[in-house]
Amino acid sequence: MTDDVDTQVSDRLVGRVLDGRYRVGARVAKGGMATVYQALDMRLDRTVALKVMHDGLGDDAQFARRFVAEARAAARLSHPNVVAVFDQGDDDGTLFLAMEYVPGRTLRDVIREQAPLAPARALDLLAPILSALSAAHDAGIVHRDIKPENVLIADNGVVKVADFGLARAVSATGNTATQGLLMGTVSYLAPELVTDGSADARSDVYSSGILLYEMLTGNKPHSGDTPIQVAYAHVHADVPAPSLEVPTIPPYVDALVQRATARDRDLRPADARVLSRQVHRVRSALEDGLPDDPELTGDLTVPIQQIRQDSGYDDGYTRDVPTLAGENGHVLRHDTIVVPVERGRPTGGPATRVQAPPPRRGRGLVALVLILAAAIGIGTAAWYYGIHRYTTTPNLVSMVPAVAAVEAEKAGLRTTLANQDFSENVPKGQVLSTDPAAGDRIRKNGEIGLTVSKGPERYRVPQLAGLELEAAKNALAPIKLNAGQIVEQYNETVPAGRVIAFSPKFDTVVKPGDAVNFVVSKGKKPITVPDTTGKSYQDANRQLRKLGLQVGRTEQYDEKVPEGNVISQTPNTGTLFAKDKVQLVVSKGPPLQDVPDVKRKSLADAQKILTDAGFIVKVEKAPFNLGLNIVAAQNPGAGKKAQPGSTVVITVL
């Protein structure tokens, strides 16, 4: 425990915020190419699982591009048994996926603690895995990395498959950082992935068969000291029957495993949906408690395509070996194997038929009776295992599950709620489809899986305002919405590149595939600064404020610029933004001068002195004027400062 705590503390990602959105919490698991953390999506206030690729993968441009493409493809998968992908990102070379957080454990934990599992339990765990793969295969997505570590079992028992598309993204690059993936996956790789790297839905079927084998036995079918030895075994050796390790396993379960893991992919079920139907049939046989079901076993047995001459027979007798057909499993013919002999052992020469001596007549009747008895026995068995034990699935579509159960019971059948899916035509709560489908053959007392309609697929538009445009687009992917028209506008409060508005608006209910239109900020609108030098302060202030700019004012004397006009402006050119300040220097007119002292001087002298000093003289007579024309007072007084050109009032006696 102490080592784990120390690791958590020393982990450089714990506590870090990726992409400005995801706060990394405790480490959950570590694999060959990534580490999974519990994280908080601070934007949507929810817990997510953050899968962070190991250092070095983000430096590979090819891998990064493929990673983004495959993550987007995986995000389009919407299925109750698929771990949802919410977002993908690149934080300065750190590639990550934001996924649904599933509290619980992995299938690896179950196998380690409980295997070998009872066949019914193993098939019940495999069924939802195949349901998830069926949805992926229908969408053209191949998982490529089905293994117990990628199967999550939630605390409520729901089984979910993770990491769709990641194996494909990794396999597209030669980065040595992906070697760990091979080490962890090689036990489940289909032969064609080893030999030529090609993969299709049947490759996932093979891996699912290996999963089933491991659940049934607790062991992997092939082992070796190195990954290459295990890979070689997948290519050159058949998966053994699980009953060799657990003898109580019925033959039809053996046949199911070996059919799914046939080395020739053409002999496997075409995809997960076909394998799922086969699993359903085997599960029904187990419910019936059948130790063997020859017809079912025959249906599932891998067809014999070629009988080699190294069969090991050495008695020289002709042998009949049944050759089984494909999916329907009926015996079509018996191929005769003729073994050439030389003194009781096989020879290397051409095959020759060994002729038995002609039968005696007395034995002909006996032979005929035996043949008829055999024919009757075969016919009876065929009737029992073919017609007698099966009935036809009734049409339960558009019924509510309770009514469907009653209708099925009338035919001696049971129903189970196997799945839910969206439908534009079948109302919510009614049966959308059945497995087997209406009219298909089903074992008497068998079980019909009901897929119930969730009604029309609809989603609510999330809150996107304030998000970076790319993050907003990523938020649409999990709910199957598309980015529509994008209009850019200047905005004084929303930073450039972020969403100002969107339509349909938040919480609107929309259909999958609908478009969401965005108004995206170009940032603050630039303002070209006009030059107001020489204008009156009132005009300059009005012009600048109308453009959205703030105005500052200082004053100073200037002999050339009239009082109240702008002497200078900072800045007087270039570009500003709203609420930026422009500083104006406004003229107070020419500098002040000292007013001369003209008291007690004659009127004529006073006028001359003041006029020479640049002032205008205004003469007033004292109320008690004596006619002396002597200056008794002046305003402004002697020693005061006044602007040249201003008026000095003198009072004379």
- Rg is 46 Å
The overall strand count is 31
State the CATH architecture of the domain at 2-100.
2-Layer Sandwich
Helix content: 25-40%
Spell out the CATH superfamily of the domain at 2-100.
Answer: Phosphorylase Kinase, domain 1
- The fraction of residues assigned to DSSP E strands is 15-25%
Largest sheet: 6 strands, antiparallel
**What would CATH call the class of the domain at 2-100?**
Alpha Beta
Number of helices: 17
- Rounded to the nearest angstrom, the distance between the terminal CA atoms is 111 Å
List low-confidence stretches.
1-10, 169-184, 305-362
Shape: rod-shaped
Kindly state the mean pLDDT as a whole number?
81
Oligomer state of the chains in this structure: single chain
**What is CATH's topology name of the domain at 2-100?**
Phosphorylase Kinase, domain 1
Strand order of the largest sheet: 1-2-3-4-6-5
Please identify the structural class as seen in this structure.
Answer: alpha+beta
Structure description:
One of its GO terms (biological process) is negative regulation of fatty acid biosynthetic process. It comes from Kribbella capetownensis. Helix content is about 30%, strand content about 25%. By secondary structure, the protein is α+β, with helices and mostly antiparallel strands. Among the domains are: about 1-100, Phosphorylase Kinase, domain 1 (2-Layer Sandwich), CATH 3.30.200; about 315-345, no CATH class; about 395-455, Trypsin Inhibitor V, Chain A, CATH 3.30.10.20; about 460-520, Trypsin Inhibitor V, Chain A; about 525-585, Trypsin Inhibitor V, Chain A, CATH 3.30.10.20; about 595-650, Trypsin Inhibitor V, Chain A (2-Layer Sandwich), CATH 3.30.10. The chain has a six-stranded antiparallel beta sheet. Strands 7-8-9 form a three-stranded antiparallel beta sheet. Strand 2 (about 20-30) and strand 3 form a beta hairpin. The protein is rod-shaped. It starts with a helix and ends with a strand. Mean pLDDT is about 80; it is low at about 1-10, about 170-185 and about 305-360.
